[in-house]
Amino acid sequence: MNRTMKRTPLLLLFCALAAPLWAAPPAPVQALDISSGHWIFHGQTMKTASGRGGGSFTWDEHCAWSPNHLFLQCTFSNNWAGRAMESLVVDTYNRTDHTYWHYEFFALGQGGGRPFVSRMQIQGNTWIEYGAPAAGQRPAERIVYRWDSPRRVRVAIEASKDGSHWTTVDEGVGRKQP
What is the CATH number of domain 25-176? Predict the structure, then answer.
């Protein structure tokens, strides 16, 4: 047996084991892929009913797939009207309950004991993440992403008193960086 014939099975084994490292995410997780890469968001925060707040925000987001292509991991360095926030986000699709999930963990800007956990709705070019309501209440906050293209997304943070009628409190635009 020549050297080439001896190496062929080893090469095939290596390719089979390494294929998941460069494979596309499995469907329906693939819907999350539009968010991969480096994004910069700029927007405005609105004044609250009490007159507090207002100003601008900037999000610097870096998203990449986990090695098994099941989790989109994103780091955020945010500035909310002069207040710094640092977080790690993990988005995924759960094949058991057939739902999308968003998990956000904070290192700066919010307490670390209560991560933001949200079931996500993805319909066409719109993603909605609902904030966790208090026990027995309807969602009070949601984040809506509307993808205009693979390189541009509009974002709105909305509040509601009844879970049906929503008012925009923050809005901006994200652009994918080269």
Answer: 2.40.128.20
